[in-house]
Automatic annotation (TrEMBL):
<protein>
    <submittedName>
        <fullName>PleD family two-component system response regulator</fullName>
    </submittedName>
</protein>
<feature type="modified residue" description="4-aspartylphosphate">
    <location>
        <position position="54"/>
    </location>
</feature>
<dbReference type="Pfam" id="PF00072">
    <property type="entry name" value="Response_reg"/>
</dbReference>
<dbReference type="InterPro" id="IPR050595">
    <property type="entry name" value="Bact_response_regulator"/>
</dbReference>
<keyword id="KW-0597">Phosphoprotein</keyword>
<dbReference type="InterPro" id="IPR011006">
    <property type="entry name" value="CheY-like_superfamily"/>
</dbReference>
<feature type="domain" description="Response regulatory">
    <location>
        <begin position="5"/>
        <end position="119"/>
    </location>
</feature>
<dbReference type="InterPro" id="IPR001789">
    <property type="entry name" value="Sig_transdc_resp-reg_receiver"/>
</dbReference>
Length: 121
């Protein structure tokens, strides 16, 4: 069985490292991206099964990335789990087209549950 591919886009290297380690232990192939500028091209090239996306990033924020994804016929069905420390992050994420939202700091078991839930749909 092919490993499911999960792309993570976050400008915090520490969070990328933790999530990558956690998801690899769970048996996923992880594609970390610290630079939001290249994320759309990476999604088109790598075809991940799921995207974990931070809202607040320099240059191209997560809600803008999400709008681009939802407007692109090739990738608009990609499940997106938004993670953010923002107080109104849930509202922003849902308005931009997120499938699910998790607040930072997040519980690692919660991340795994959400990932498995989104991938089983």
């Amino acid at each position: 069985m092919d490993k499911k591919k999960i792309m993570i886009c976050d400008d915090d290297q520490g969070i990328l490292d933790v999530l990558q380690m956690l998801l690899e232990i769970e048996g996923f192939e992880v594609l970390p991206q610290i630079n939001s500028i290249h994320i759309i091209n990476e999604i088109l090239m790598q075809s991940p099964d799921l995207l974990l996306l931070d809202l607040w990033m320099p240059i191209l924020p997560g809600d803008e990335i999400l709008k681009i994804i939802r407007d692109n016929p090739e990738i608009k069905k990609l499940p997106v789990l938004v993670i953010s420390a923002s107080g109104d992050g849930n509202k922003i994420a849902m308005e931009a087209g997120a499938d699910r939202f998790l607040a930072k700091p997040f519980d690692l078991n919660e991340i795994i549950a959400e990932v498995n839930n989104l991938l089983s749909n």
